[in-house]
Amino acid sequence: MMRRVSLGSRLALLFAACTAAVSLGAGLIFSRASAQHFVELDQQLLDSRLSLFRSQLAGLGSAAELQARLPALRDELGHQADLALRISGSDGATWFESRTGLPQAPLPGGLATLHEQGTDYRSLAVYLVQDAAQSPQLALYLDITHHQHFLQGMQRLIWLTVGLSALATALLGAWAARRGLRPLRQMGQVAASVSVRSLTTRLPVAQMPEELAELASAMNAMLQRLDDAFQRLSAFSADIAHELRTPLSNLLTHTQVTLTRPRSLEEYREALHGNLEELQRMAQMINDMLFLAKADHGLLVPGRAPLALHEEVDALLEYYTPLAEDSNVQLSREGEACLQGDRHMLRRALSNLLDNALRFTPAGGQIQVTLAPGPTLCVANTGGTIDPAALPRLFDRFYRVDPARREGTSEHAGLGLAITRSIVQAHGGRIRAECVDGWTRFVIEFTEDR
After folding, report:
1. pTM to 2 decimal places
2. Which of 103, 135, 329, 377 is most buried (CB neighbours < 10 A)?
């Protein structure tokens, strides 16, 4: 299996490749510009010498006439050692050649680069009389070997510069990448150190670069969520053990007492009925916890049907009226509202709220259910004051406010409000608790697009 290349190495190689490409491009442009500059200089030199030789050889018609003009030509050619001249007749026969071994220059006229016997030439071949094909031919040769050596040396320097700059950039890029990626290594160290005992570790967002600050904040938020979830899970596990321990202890004690001596059939039947009540309570608690577990995993999918909430509330109030009359509590409903939702789930949520209100409303108190378009539903009851800090925790599983608000029987496990919140959230709504002027209110707000 191939070893994965680190991000720092990738950045260093990328820096080196970019630097090499830029250096190579700049070097090639400079090399081409230099070569073109030399060509222009050679063109100017050959054009100026061509004008001079044409004036000296004006009217030349044969090789015999050329002999009288050769001293002046040689004297002129002697002023520039790297310049050579060949004069030919219209038939191509050579009349004069200032240097042996010159290559054949192509006609018609035009600048050409030739190579002969290890020497590089820039040549210009034209007719003595312009555009006269029957006139003698002139071919000027300029030795550019030193130019070529200069360009070759420049190309070697370019390649050397490209290689050294790429190497230097790779080293500097590796150092810069390693230094710049230090916050990522810190994130890795924090992530590696996260455990049950170190969920409080956080990244120093203020010390992070701007590009990583948002990621660090998101990671800190994730660690906070994990810490909160773990704390809730630990508390939930402890609460489950506490809630199940009491009925199990009751069952065990009741059964042991029953088996201490022989009893009549009727006594055994009564003992089994007592055990049955405890088992039913435990079964209900387990079903409620399974319901909440489905909600936590997003498996709670309510049905969608048009519901008149005021009709559902009226049906529940009619059911709870006998209990309210026994407790001398007044029930009432105001307003109307409609909603697309699951009838069974919403009835369970409303029933939990009404049952909770009945248990904590003193004799002579009131329970009001208020509906409004939106839709919004509010279940309010009179009673004692709840600490504002405890209001958000009312929806936690197995939560008890304080002994003054604790129910006197063991038939309620403290899961009703948690189930109600799960149902409301599954319908796209939200629920909150308020306690103002002796009234405790549970307000449910649904969004219209649901």
Report:
1. 0.49
2. 377
